[in-house]
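URGENT: need a sanity check before tomorrow's submission.

F., can you look over the SNARE associated golgi protein record below? I want to be sure the sequence and structure line up before it goes out.
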Amino acid sequence: MLKRVYNRLMSVAGHRYAAWWLLLVAFAESSFFPIPPDVLLIPMVLAERRKAWFYAALATVASVVGGMLGYLIGSVLYDTLGQWIISTYHLQAQAAHAVALFRENAIKIMMVKGLVPVIPYKLVTITAGLAHMDFLTFVLTSIAVRALRFFLVAGLLWKFGEPMRVFIERRLALVTTACAVGLVGGFLLVKFL
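Structure tokens as predicted:
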């Protein structure tokens, strides 16, 4: 089954509308969607390494714009949409603590949590809005953090593309398990911090 999913992602990654899917997923993940854009970015770069920088730029722009929506959810729509998203991840108890920490160390928190793929970026963007972080600082930090993350992933895949593809294909179950553990671990880390 994993091989089938991997092959499907690789075929979508090489599809003529793949860039639009990447834009959509990167935008949505920064504000409400649970799946990170890496699930498309990685196979897209592996399928067409010459477009690595273009795909990283697309993911960055869409993620920052989606982050602006996340900020809006936190600052204006928290009582409705924001609380629903936070409760979906069972983080209600940590919300007040996170806001207090964010008010003291917003840029540091964004730099660390925005780079780590296991921490959902939507939680960072919503909390930034809830803490009323300066919007310009939020946008500039988002650009720096998301660009660093996506260009680093794209750069590694561009440089080591074929060996990375072979490694992923040979150890698909291991790679998938590691990603799943990382994703669940990220949610647990956010929940218990």
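My own read: The chain has a mean pLDDT of 79. The chain has nine helices and no strands. If you see anything odd, call me.
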